[in-house]
Amino acid sequence: MAAREDIRRMWQINVPKMALKHDFLMHSLFSVTALHIASSCPDNQSSYIDRAIRHHNIALREYSAELKSITRENSAALFTCATLTVISALSLVMLRPNEEQKGLSEGLLGIFMLLRGVPLVLHATWIWIEKSEIAPLLIGREKDESIVLSDEVTNAIKLLEDRNQWMSSSDADRNTYARAIQGLKECFNLLSSKDRDNGMVLTWPISLSPEYLELLGSCQQMAVVILAHYAVILNEIRDTWWEMGWGRKLIQEIHQLVHDEWKVLVAWPMDKIGMGRNMTGAASPK
C-alpha cells in the first residue's frame, strides 16, 4: 500500500487498530485484502472477488451513513476508508468478470463519484486528521515550490491550457477545466517530490469538482483529453498491484473517444505511456 516507511507502518499497525473500532473500515480492509489475494492467486480468483464485492458493498453502505455525522472520533477512519474504497473500485473494474462491462472511462467516472465525500471530510476535519493515527498520509502533500516540472509535462499542460482558453464554450466551463488542469499540474508536482508515495495519485480525483464530473460524464472532449493526462499519472505507478494496467488501458479507450481535431492533445499521453507508435494518428507532437 505504500513505499515510504512511515506510511507502511501506519497501514500495518495504526489502520488495523482503527478498524477494530469502525466496522466500515474493517470491511474496506477485508475488500482490499481479498482483491490483493485475487490478483496474486488466479487459480482461486473468483471466490476472493466475490468476498471483495461483498465487503466493498457493506463498507460503502456504512461509510455513506457515517458521512452524515462526522466527528473527531470517526474522521480519520472515514478518510482512510475513502482511500481504500477507491483502491477496491479500481481493482474490481479490472478483475470482475462482466459480460456487459462498461467502458473504463465510465467506470473511472463512477470511482471519482465515490470520492465526492472526501473533500467534505478533509475540510471539516483537517485539524483532527493531521493529529490522528493517519497523519503520515498528509506529510509531503504540500506543494513544493522548488520542484520544476520537466519540459514535456510543462508543454503538455500548456497545450491543455491554451486549448481550454479558445475552445471552451462558456466562462463557467473554462473555469471548471482550468481547475482540473491545475489539479493535474499539482499531482505531477507531488509525484516529482522526494516524499513521493503512490497514494498521491488519488489527490487529483479527490480535488475534482462536480461540474467537471458532469462534463466528463457527457463525454465533452475537453474533459476527456484532460482525463488522458491522468492516465499518464496512473501509469507512473504501474508497478503497484492495484494499478492493474489502468493507465495503458484507459489511454487506449480515450483514443477511441477523442474526435480527430482533439487527437493532438492525447498524442503526448499516448507517447509517454509507450503507445504512440501502436495507434493510427497518434504521432508525438513536435
Task: Summarize the entry for a quick read.
By secondary structure, the protein is mainly α. It has 13 helices and no strands.
Distance between the first and last residues' Cα: 38 Å
Radius of gyration: 19 Å
Q: Percentage of helical residues?
A: 55-70%
Largest sheet: none
Class computed from helices, strands and strand pairing: mainly alpha
**Unreliable residue stretches:** 277-286
Task: Write down the overall geometry.
Answer: globular
Compile the SSE list and pairings.
Layout: H1 5-19, H2 23-40, H3 45-66, H4 72-95, H5 104-114, H6 117-129, H7 151-167, H8 171-191, H9 203-207, H10 210-217, H11 221-235, H12 246-257, H13 264-273
Helix pairs in contact: 2-3, 2-4, 3-4, 4-5, 4-6, 5-10, 7-8, 7-11, 8-11, 10-11, 11-12, 11-13, 12-13
